[in-house]
């Protein structure tokens, strides 16, 4: 999933362009003897959930002595993938279905195991491999105002046909993607127009004002649990399964070995969707920092 952006700008950890110095770590690197070697460059997309995941893996690796350089908040896959494939970026927590459909313009399978296999095949020519995927899932979810949903009987995306006109507000890339505007237009056959709104906060404000009808949000973001909004069922399944999976440069995996993979897989194994939703809430709604939220979670799980 994920290409929607977090609601609090204050949690951004680093500059949003490649080549700038990465921000400092959020963990105590004296927790374990250093493994030495070049730092592993861990990246994130430009939304809260991705930054939290990248910080979780970064701190877990640092706790075991692996040096890490953070390059967070870079942007969408269109910006991240060239540097991931070149090796400038070496590790990013991905979302299986969206990686296949948006990153490679391929049809994503409907189950997590098949997605993992297909995504691994797509990444292989670029020297990128996948580690274990997590039980946690975060996908694009579409919300409308609850008062509109009640007035018009909207429970699923296809119900939007009841409206004379639908305005979908989303980030720029939504306009060309089958799991967003293109899916609304071509799969759901809606009378829909697209309004490009880069930031998630302004998108939510436009929804509140009635300027747009529906917007995408992360399925683990606070608005999905807010009674003011109604989550629409994706009844024609334009959005794929979105389990989190670390995509890692093959050279790093070969050089660092099985112990490195075990550290990463241990984090993934503990990540569930409810816990990921809570981590997002702590940052976006409660105002805690990404580094502190990650450190606390890893400590509770015995991983740092």
Automatic annotation (TrEMBL):
> What is the top-level taxon of the source organism?
Bacteria
- Any keyword Signal? yes
| Endpoints of the signal sequence | 1-21
Record's GO cellular component, any one?
A: ATP-binding cassette (ABC) transporter complex
CDD domains the record matches: PBP2_ProX_like
Q: Name one GO molecular function term.
A: transmembrane transporter activity
Chain ranges of the ABC-type glycine betaine transport system substrate-binding domain:
39-300
Give UniProt keywords alphabetically.
Signal
Q: What Pfam families does UniProt report for this protein, alphabetically?
A: OpuAC
**Is Secreted included in the keywords of this UniProt record?**
no
What SUPFAM superfamilies does this protein map onto?
Answer: Periplasmic binding protein-like II (SSF53850)
Q: What name does this protein carry?
A: Glycine/betaine ABC transporter substrate-binding protein
Species of the source: Amycolatopsis bartoniae
């Amino acid at each position: 999933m994920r290409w929607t952006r977090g609601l609090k700008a204050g949690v951004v950890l680093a500059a949003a362009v490649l080549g700038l110095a990465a921000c400092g770590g959020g963990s105590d690197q004296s927790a374990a003897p250093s493994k030495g070697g070049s730092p592993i460059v861990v990246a994130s997309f430009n939304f809260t959930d991705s930054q939290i995941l990248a910080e979780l893996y970064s701190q877990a690796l640092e706790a075991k002595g692996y040096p890490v350089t953070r390059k967070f908040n870079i942007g969408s896959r269109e910006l991240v993938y060239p540097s991931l494939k070149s090796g400038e970026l070496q590790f990013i927590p991905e979302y299986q279905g969206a990686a296949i459909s948006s990153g490679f313009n391929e049809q994503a399978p409907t189950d997590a195991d098949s997605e993992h296999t297909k995504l691994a095949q797509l990444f292989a020519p670029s020297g990128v491999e996948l580690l274990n995927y997590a039980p946690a899932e975060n996908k694009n979810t579409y919300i409308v105002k609850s008062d509109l949903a009640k007035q018009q009987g909207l429970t699923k995306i296809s119900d939007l046909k009841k409206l004379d006109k639908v305005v979908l507000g989303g980030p720029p890339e939504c306009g060309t993607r089958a799991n967003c505007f293109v899916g609304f237009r071509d799969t759901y056959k809606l009378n829909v127009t697209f309004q490009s709104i880069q930031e998630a906060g302004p998108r939510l404000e436009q929804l509140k004002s009635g300027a747009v009808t529906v917007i995408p949000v992360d399925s683990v973001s606070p608005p999905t649990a807010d009674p003011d909004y109604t989550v629409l069922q994706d009844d024609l399944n334009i959005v794929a399964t979105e389990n989190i999976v670390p995509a890692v440069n093959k050279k790093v995996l070969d050089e660092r070995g099985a112990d490195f993979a075990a550290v990463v897989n241990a984090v993934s194994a503990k990540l569930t969707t409810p816990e990921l939703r809570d981590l997002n809430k702590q940052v976006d709604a409660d105002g805690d920092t990404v580094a502190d939220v990650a450190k606390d979670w890893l400590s509770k799980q015995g991983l740092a």
